UniProtKB/TrEMBL annotation:
GO terms for molecular function: GTPase activator activity. It comes from the Eukaryota. SMART domains: TBC. GO terms for biological process: endoplasmic reticulum to Golgi vesicle-mediated transport. SUPFAM superfamilies: Ypt/Rab-GAP domain of gyp1p. InterPro entries: Rab-GAP-TBC_dom, Rab-GAP_TBC_sf, TBC20/Gyp8-like. It comes from Sporormia fimetaria CBS 119925. Transmembrane segments: none annotated. GO terms for cellular component: endoplasmic reticulum membrane. Keywords: GTPase activation. Residues 47-230 form the Rab-GAP TBC domain. This is Rab-GAP TBC domain-containing protein.
């Protein structure tokens, strides 16, 4: 058998494998077999193509349980407070993909804006974050303008709820799982990385990596994986990225790199991005170091967080949207209480600092009053000696 024949045999076998998987995906979608669909979405090459994703993603998100065309029209609803920022971000959309002419690009931007504004107007409690348009862009390119609003609504309340709250604190708690994963997986790398808040990972995790990956086939494959996995899995993917660059980080001289420089390096994303390798590594890390094993970082996460409520694809698919809204409201209240507590602590600290700074003045006034009293009682000389002793003691 010559090399040409061998190559053809391999291509035929690959074609048969691809066709077989395609049929399995279609069958799982027809039968609404969520377990099989999850397995296929996680497996190598995921859901393979957008024609299959167009059917599979709404099933993974449980979109079929929602009213398809709610009324009234979103155009009739009051504007959302963040629409000005939406317009600015949408104007910067579709930089890397797809490569369209000006007329088609303008239409895509209009449709993208309409999807985001519709979701925000129908659910005004949602807080738009910069980068949200990156997520919506990916979903829009797969599902189109008609099916995207329902998918984005469920994604917002049941998958990325912690990111669209009034404050960023719940999202930061996601990031704080990252050092524990690195410490358990690679103690040497953990010791090399400065002990700081891992905000360098925020841009990637906040947007499900859609802000940092500029290859459309890669980001849609990654979305297959995210929609079929635990809500914490983006943190494990980021951990995989850091671990893949361990030799580079270990070679950095900590005396030459301050915290800001190190943070910039930790936030740098490898291009091209080996998506299958990072998916497999993230799965391995998750199985070896589950979120529950991360101690205080895990215990600090709210019981209403997506990390502890709608964790799996099954949770998301089977949870009514109203439940997601109730959990959103619960987290809103928690955030409000925590912000009030922070303001109280900050005010108390300022008062303490103010008192401390004025202690000499206060003490001088007290001593002056004592001196006056002592002068009346014992005469000026005795009073002066006593005051001098007090000043030296406080001195």
């Amino acid at each position: 058998m010559n090399a040409t024949t061998t190559g053809l045999d391999e291509k035929e076998a690959l074609g048969e494998t691809t066709r077989d998987k395609r049929e399995k995906i279609l069958l799982a979608c027809r039968e609404r077999d969520l377990d099989v669909l999850v397995t296929l979405a996680i497996s190598e090459n995921g859901l393979m193509e957008d024609t299959l994703r167009r059917t599979a993603w709404p099933i993974l998100l449980g979109c079929e349980t929602e009213e398809p065309h709610p009324s009234p029209s979103w155009h009739e609803l009051p504007p959302h407070r963040d629409e000005e920022q939406v317009a600015k971000d949408v104007d910067r959309a579709f930089v890397y993909y797809p490569q369209d002419g000006d007329q088609k690009l303008a239409r895509r931007k209009e449709e993208l804006s309409n999807i985001i504004v519709e979701v925000l107007r129908r659910h005004p409690s949602l807080c738009y974050i910069q980068g949200f348009h990156d997520i919506v862009q990916v979903v829009y390119l797969v599902l189109g303008p008609q099916d995207s609003p329902s998918a984005i609504t469920r994604l917002s309340f049941l998958r990325i709820r912690d990111y669209v709250l009034p404050e960023i604190d719940p999202a930061i708690l996601h990031l704080e799982l990252l050092p524990g994963i690195i410490k358990a997986a690679d103690p040497e790398l953990y010791d090399q990385i400065p002990k700081m808040q891992p905000s360098f990972a925020l841009g990637a995790t906040l947007t499900l990596f859609s802000h940092v990956i500029d290859a459309y086939p890669v980001i849609t494959r990654l979305f297959d994986f995210f929609l079929a996995s635990d809500a914490a899995i983006p943190i494990y993917v980021y951990a995989s990225v850091l671990l893949s660059r361990r030799e580079y980080f270990l070679a950095l001289d900590k005396d030459e790199y301050d915290e800001a420089m190190f943070s910039a390096e930790l936030g740098r994303f490898p291009q091209p991005f080996d998506v299958e390798e990072h998916i497999q590594q993230a799965r391995k890390l998750y199985n070896q170091i589950p979120p529950e094993s991360l101690g205080w970082a895990w215990r600090r996460v709210s019981r209403s967080s997506v990390l502890k409520t709608t964790r799996s694809a099954a949770d998301v698919a089977h949870t009514p949207l109203d439940t997601g809204k109730r959990l959103f409201s619960a987290q809103e209240r928690e955030v409000s209480i925590n912000q009030a507590r922070k303001r109280l602590v900050s005010s108390a600290r300022r008062v303490r600092i103010g008192i401390w700074r004025r202690r000499r003045l206060c003490l001088s006034l007290v001593i002056g009053a004592c001196a006056l009293w002592l002068g009346k009682q014992h005469g000026g000389g005795a009073a002066g000696a006593i005051v001098m002793r007090l000043m030296r003691t406080l001195g």
